[in-house]
Amino acid sequence: MRRYATEFIGTYFLLLTIGLAVTTMNALAPVAIGGILMVMIYAGGHISGAHFNPAVTLAVLIRGRIKRADAGGYILAQLLGGLTGAVTSQLILDNAKPTALSPAGREIWMALAVEALFTFALAYVVLNVATSRSHPDNSFYGLAIGGTVLVGVVTVGGISGAAFNPAVAFGGAAIGLFAWSAIWIHLLAQAVGATLAAMTFLTLNEEDRKPV
Q: What angle is formed at CA 121 by the lines to CA 118 and CA 122, rounded to 5 degrees?
């Protein structure tokens, strides 16, 4: 339960930050989003591993660092935390609604591509800096992961919304950041990106193929 609570809290503050920063169109929203993820990873990494993202949990499951039952608990905690954080942001802003991002036509393929690519990048970085035998007890994992999200949001936020995280996709849709009709784009791309990242990690790191 300590691990599930940690996952809930971290994902809560991630979505709270996204909801507040994006809805108010804060120019520094990417910095805030990458920053809150970084500090929450440092705060909770020693308890749960600080996934705060079902796609990351999927990659860690394929990599062999979490059991299926625990992965299910993580994902549930992340989705609940994200939804609660998103709703809290709207209560604070008195239900101010941003324009929902809803790709159409060729934009769908663009959104699928960038969501898959940057979810791959995020999961690949997480696996290498937070689960590799080559980096035990390192002190840079939170900065690397938060920095990856910052780069992704700045680079492709205008194309796909830069979710890279099913909890962000669901929480964002609940408060109007994403259209529900386009939620499949995020979920499909994120699952593909996370799976490919785990397979790539295992291919490139032979010593990490056995579960720890």
A: 90
- Which two structure tokens, joined as six digits, stand for 137? 């007890």
3-state class percentages of the chain: helix first, strand second, coil last, to nearest 5: 75, 0, 25
Tokens at 11, concatenated: 């994902």
Condensed to tens digits (0 to 9), the pLDDT of residues 120-178 reads 999 999 999 999 888 777 889 999 999 999 999 999 999 999 999 999 999 999 999 99
Phi then psi for 178, rounded to 5 degrees? -125, 150
- Which residue in 18, 187, 186 sits closest to 111, CA to CA? 186
Three-class DSSP category at 76: helix
d(CA 190, CA 170): 13
Sign of CA dihedral 205, 210, 211, 212: negative
d(CA 173, CA 36): 20
Query: How far, in Å, CA of 126 to CA of 136, rounded?
Result: 13
